[in-house]
Amino acid sequence: MKINRIITSLLVAGTLASCAPAITVKYDYDPKVNVRQFATYRIEADRQRNADPIVGSNLNQRRIADALDQSLKARGYKPVTQGEADLVVRFFMDSKDKQQIQSNNMYSPYSWWYGGMGNNVYSRQYEENRVVVNVSDARTNDIIWQGWATGQLNNRNKERDRDQAFRETITSIMKNFPESAGQDYGAAR
């Protein structure tokens, strides 16, 4: 009877760990904008939305900016430090506390006979993070492309793991951005 409870507990713990929310990436864009006209960019953190002292920390902002810079350079865009850029890439990160509830669904009408394994319900608290990248036309300040990722980004303990997590997340977001400057959305897919 006790072995059944131990096995059930291990199965539930494994199920909860495997059901941890994965990072989900989505994007949207303005199909009316001719992307071929853009070749340069500058990256800015959205200071108002990055107000959280942990998630919006300067350290995380640098991680995101560095990953964005690498991704845009790899696509053929040129960074502009002084003067006018064609694109302004603004980003922010936020978080909220979430709760996941899981049931082992082990109820049986005969459970009283072999140890009372019932339908146990477990809950897990976690922090869900979101990274949003807004790409705007610098002349009009209109967003022409937006990508975002939602999931658990801040759950890594080692600094190197966090750097990698942010890099991978930004790479996933920017995967849907046009491949190189002067290329339209239809050609980027």
From TrEMBL:
Signal peptide: 1-22
Any matching Pfam family: DUF4136
Superkingdom of this protein's organism: Bacteria
Ranges where the DUF4136 domain occurs: 25-178
Keyword Ribonucleoprotein among record annotations: no
UniProt entry keywords in alphabetical sequence: Signal
Lipid metabolism as UniProt keyword: no
Name recorded for this polypeptide: DUF4136 domain-containing protein
Organism this protein belongs to: Spirosoma radiotolerans
